[in-house]
Amino acid sequence: MKKEEKPYSPGLEGVIAGTTSISEVDPQRQKLAYRGYDIEELAAHASYEEVAYLLLYGELPAGEELSSFSAELASARKLPPAVYGILKLMPLSVESMDALRTAVSFLGATDPEVRDNSREANLRKSIRLISQMATIIAAHYRMRAGLSPLDPDPGLSHAANFFTMITDRKPEPFEARPFEISLILYAEHSFNASTFSSRVIASTLADMHAAVAGAIGALKGPLHGGANERVMEMLLEIGEPSKAETWILNALKEKRRIMGFGHRVYKWGDSRVPTLKRIGRELAGYLGETRWVEIAETVERVMEREKGLYPNADFPCAPLYFMLGLPSRLYTPLFAAARIAGWAAHVIEQHGDNRLIRPDSIYRGERHRAYVPFGQRKSGKR
Hints:
By secondary structure, this protein is mostly helical. The protein folds into two domains: 21-219 and 339-352, Citrate Synthase, domain 1; 227-323, CATH 1.10.230.10.
């Protein structure tokens, strides 16, 4: 009698892997909520500091809580000198995500509370990491370009300071808010690959820094965070709005993968896309340069018509960052700098009610093989 196999879902699609009160993705309504607050409302009214506080503490800050939290973030921005030394030792060929992962791991070695997984210590480490990751990304980018890292400006908001440390100029008002909104929209998205990786690591009772380093490694892949960089490469290759439809039709004919489309959860459209498209159009209007928005809109229209696929957040975010003058090599690190608030919240939640995550598997290999002494074996495939 054949042994009955356990059910298997490739990529764990549709499998419930845990519970959370941090965020909810509703694919039917095309809605995303952080702690019960609709993401569109947060993007319209909240600062990144408010959203980070919400994710970490469960409630929006009130009274003196926001100013106190913002001050804590600002005071944590500067890196230990040894981290700058680690960044200087890296070859110029090292990608930003690899530098970030290594630096975060090293920060764990310097953090006095690294072994303390209590909620209170994890919250303090989360605040440090939210600030320090932005500084690492900006410092490595500038050092790789032969420039000196800039000191953080405690008088600026988290988003404005991050932008300034990268570009060496304070953002204009029409630049500052779109950049901050992008960080808010990227801050959290339930059990995605990188967040789930952080929870798996945290479930072993590994520390916050270990879990975040693992999440950074997962985000690096082009099927997750790395998609936004590939999107801009495609838009630059297309070059002109008049060429967009023909380019996409040819790419589809050649069975090329069009990055930034499709989503494991959203089948009829990513809830973050309308806001990103709106602020992208507004920014293009301020700049008087609508080319990239026009190309993106044509690509989107053709993909929906030809393949029934809708863009995910990476697609409109790529031209938004390009119009802001941010280099494409930083698009995925920018994603990580935003998502650290969500990762940290999930690590805290996992540590707070933990069970080791250890799924089962279905064995597909050979069985009942007899051991053959070395001298009697025939060379096999390698």
